[in-house]
Write a structure and sequence with these properties.
Tetracycline Repressor, domain 2; Arc Repressor Mutant, subunit A; elongated; mainly alpha
Length: about 220
């Protein structure tokens, strides 16, 4: 049973406390899923890691699905912030794209628990019908990349190609990064990031026409 309006009004006055508690629960859920897997990450296990009661989790999240969806949203939002900061100040679309790709690889390397947890969530729910919110978030993220590629073409930096197909290809390459880092923990992250960025730099940039020498 969800709390009534009166209780919601009382809780609205404790939004800062609620936000902190929800963040604590989400953090515990990430670490628990990364440690024991999606199937074994019960409210009881998550509560034990967070040092709270399972009933308190139920107070903030009606079901495990609600908590899992919040985990994915929070990880995606934090990644978006990190990549946006990395690309800020780029003077060209090409350097912005490099910053985005390199930033993604470095983020995955620096946040293994988040990437492992989200990967396990996606694997466990692969056969489920995706929620409208998840589809909308994917479309919005893809559209941002499409817009960036199209603007790079309009600026004359990128060659002619389908911005959508290129965006889908870049996204697919991103999906393989966490698995590679987990499979090879001794990976030279900087070299990997540079190689991936260079690959797509060659894929999108407009070829420079050399001048024919006379004589």
């Amino acid at each position: 049973m969800q709390p009534g309006n009166e209780v919601n009004d009382q809780r609205a006055g404790r939004s800062f406390i609620e936000s902190a508690r929800r963040a604590q629960i989400v953090r515990a859920a990430i670490d628990t899923i990364a440690d024991v897997g999606f199937g074994k990450a019960s409210f009881a296990r998550i509560a034990e890691r967070a040092g709270i009661s399972a009933s308190l989790i139920s107070y903030h999240f009606a079901a495990k699905g609600d908590l899992i969806e919040q985990v994915v949203r929070d990880v995606d939002a934090e990644m978006d912030r990190a990549l946006t900061e990395r690309a800020e100040g780029a003077e060209t679309y090409l350097t912005a794209l490099r910053a985005l790709i390199e930033g993604f690889v470095h983020y995955c390397a620096e946040h293994p628990a988040e990437m492992l947890a989200v990967g396990r969530i996606h694997n466990a729910t692969r056969g489920d019908e995706p929620s409208g919110r998840r589809v909308a978030e994917y479309d919005a993220s893809l559209q941002e990349l499409i817009d960036m590629l199209r603007e790079g073409q309009e600026a004359g930096e990128f060659r002619d190609f389908s911005p959508r197909y290129m965006a889908v290809t870049i996204t697919a390459a991103f999906q393989g990064v966490p698995g590679e880092l987990f499979a090879k923990p001794d990976t030279d992250v900087a070299a990997y990031a540079d190689e991936l960025a260079t690959t797509f730099e060659h894929a999108v940039r407009r070829a420079m026409r050399g001048r024919r020498k006379n004589g």
